[in-house]
From TrEMBL:
In the C-terminal section; belongs to the NAD synthetase family. One of its GO terms (cellular component) is cytoplasm. This is Glutamine-dependent NAD(+) synthetase. Its EC number is 6.3.5.1. Homohexamer. It holds the Pfam family NAD_synthase. It comes from Takifugu rubripes (Japanese pufferfish). The keyword tRNA processing does not apply. The lineage of its organism: Eukaryota, Metazoa, Chordata, Craniata, Vertebrata. The keyword tRNA processing does not apply. Pathway: Cofactor biosynthesis; NAD(+) biosynthesis; NAD(+) from deamido-NAD(+) (L-Gln route): step 1/1. GO terms for biological process: NAD+ biosynthetic process. Keywords: ATP-binding, Ligase, NAD, Nucleotide-binding.
């Protein structure tokens, strides 16, 4: 029963060690007799993995005590009162002499000391408890938040800066920082002096005591909307509303002057001025004009991260947060060294579909409803009648839902083009014809192949799922492929 319940949970790969240990305790080996104490590390290991703690005590395959997952406490101690005679009785039942298997004797060993005294007879024995699982959405809220806290403490910086576009990805990164502020305020309220000392060191105030997550967020979190002539009022409003709700220090920046200055340098040297496709420009011109906007945002993000606190008379700098999800990394649907490049990325190991579920969970407390219903767009091309003319899914020629399925087949099922096509014609038989499936598979592998080199520049991200395309240590595949366009020309 325990085994079935555990394996049916949708749990991120980073927690796999804990789940495996629970399986060993509950049903590993041929029997589960005996008492087991399991202690897991807690905190960031200096890399992409966060150890979630969750110590436990078990006896004869039953969990009798469970620690807390995803806590900002450095140390957690749990205890349970066990009756060791229960172990002897359990073994005796398993080794009944009428069993056909070879008997396994259980000897009683006499020693000259006792693990308890007379008063312990009156102590109540802990009874089995139901194992408490977090939902995937809760894990997105808690795991990356604790990872960010460890990174912030170790880096010696004074907070985070996030380019907030008003879309699902950057909104998810912002909500994770807000979740961190909630955890920190709860820990201080519970009397955790270590967390209080760390918070005071981060904000640079030895008398500060956080009481409200929004107020703490205003001290350690800065968001900036970097708009251009291609941006809409809707995205500007969504970013401002979300920043106001979580309490971040928000700025609105216009990048048009910087973009025109860079293009002016190019024009002065070459005598040519590139145009967008809607204005008669070629595909190369159109792509270059999109890329320069994205890269300007990255440069400005680092500038404000270094000097925004200085402009307010406060010490320290800020860590730049990224907001590129797994699906964008998988297809390379981002500019190399653009605003997706950052110091760390809390959502780099999570798919768009899971991020939407995460924001859906928060919709009662934060203004996420409009963000969820808005079409995902980079807003890098000119508007048409004041409205967005470019969307991510149209550019990629597939939806994020389809891409999520494809990404899992590529990594988890280790599918190449042909085996993926064979699986998808059955999975999508009610939605797409075999010809349409073939076109999507070919297009995906073309995008994956020509953009795989971008994986070498990915921002370090919290490793959360087994479908991650992270080139560093996890998805060790070539980053230079022979472009499949020639092979699939027919």
């Amino acid at each position: 029963r325990h085994y079935t319940d555990l394996t049916q949970m949708k749990t991120p790969a980073v927690l796999g060690v804990d789940i495996i240990c629970v399986l060993i305790v509950l049903c590993g080996c041929d029997r589960a007799e005996g008492s087991t104490l399991y202690a897991n590390q807690k905190g960031c290991d200096g890399d992409r993995v966060y150890y979630d703690g969750c110590a436990m005590v078990a006896i004869n395959g039953d969990i009798v005590a469970q620690g807390v997952q995803f806590s900002v406490n450095d140390v957690e101690v749990i205890s349970a009162t066990l009756d060791l005679e229960d172990v002897r009785s359990y073994r005796g039942r398993e080794n009944h002499p009428h069993l056909e298997s070879d008997p396994k004797p259980c000897y009683r060993v006499r020693v000259n000391f006792s693990l308890s005294d007379v008063d312990d007879v009156h102590l109540p024995v802990h009874q089995p408890v139901e194992w408490c699982f977090h939902t995937p959405e809760e894990e997105i809220s808690l795991g990356p938040a604790c990872w960010l806290w460890d990174y912030l403490r170790r880096s010696g910086q004074a907070g985070f800066l996030l380019p907030l576009s008003g879309g699902v990805d950057s909104a998810s990164s912002a909500c994770i920082v807000h979740s961190l502020c909630v955890l920190l305020c709860r820990a201080v309220e519970d009397g955790n002096t270590q967390v209080l000392d760390d918070v005071r060191r981060v904000v640079g105030d030895s008398t500060y005591r956080p009481t409200q997550p929004r107020e703490l967020c205003s001290r350690i979190f800065t968001t900036c909307y970097m708009g251009s002539e291609n941006s809409t009022e809707d995205t500007r409003t969504r970013a401002k509303d979300l920043a106001g709700e979580i309490g971040s220090t928000h700025m609105t920046i216009n990048i048009d002057l910087a973009v025109r200055s860079i293009l002016g340098i190019f024009s002065a040297v070459t005598g040519k001025w590139p145009q967008f496709g809607v204005n008669g420009g070629s595909r190369r011109e159109n792509l270059a004009l999109q890329n320069v906007q994205a890269r300007v945002r990255m440069v400005l993000a680092y500038l404000f991260a270094q000097l925004s606190l200085w402009s307010r008379g406060r010490p320290g700098g800020l860590l730049v947060l990224g907001s590129a999800n797994v699906d964008e990394s998988l297809t390379g649907y981002f500019t190399k060294y653009d605003c997706s490049s950052a110091d760390i990325n809390p959502i780099g190991g999570i798919s768009k579909a899971d991020l939407k579920n995460f924001l859906f969970l928060l919709r009662r407390d934060l203004p996420a409803e409009h963000i969820l219903t808005a079409p995902p767009t980079a807003e890098l091309e000119p508007l048409k009648d004041g409205q967005v003319s470019q969307t991510d899914e149209a550019d990629m020629k597939m939806t994020y839902s389809e891409l999520s399925v494809i990404g899992r087949l590529r990594k988890i099922s280790m599918c190449g083009p042909f085996s993926m096509f064979c699986k998808l014609i059955h999975l999508w038989k009610d939605l797409l014809s075999p010809v349409e499936v073939a076109q999507k598979v070919k297009h995906f592998f073309w995008m994956y192949s020509v953009n795989r080199h971008k994986m070498t520049t990915l921002t370090p991200a919290y490793h959360a799922e087994s479908y991650s395309p992270d080139d560093n240590r996890f998805d060790l595949r070539p980053f230079l492929y022979d472009t499949p366009q020639r092979r699939w020309a027919t």
